[in-house]
Amino acid sequence: MARLLLTITTSLSFFCCSSAFAEQQPQSEALKWGIGGAIITQDQGYIDIGNETVFVPAIAIQYGDFNLLGPRATYKLYQAEQFEISVGAQLRLDGFEAADSKFFTGMEDRDMSFDAGFEAEYDTSFGEFGFEFMHDVSSTHKGYEASVSYGVPFRFADGRVYPYIAANFQSEDLVDYYYGVRVNEALSSRPYYLGESSTALEVGIQSDWYFGKHHMLKADVSYTSYGDEIKDSPLIDASGNVQVLLGYVYVF
Question: Which of 12, 70, 141, 182 sits a CA distance of 20 to 30 A from 91?
Answer without folding.
Answer: 182
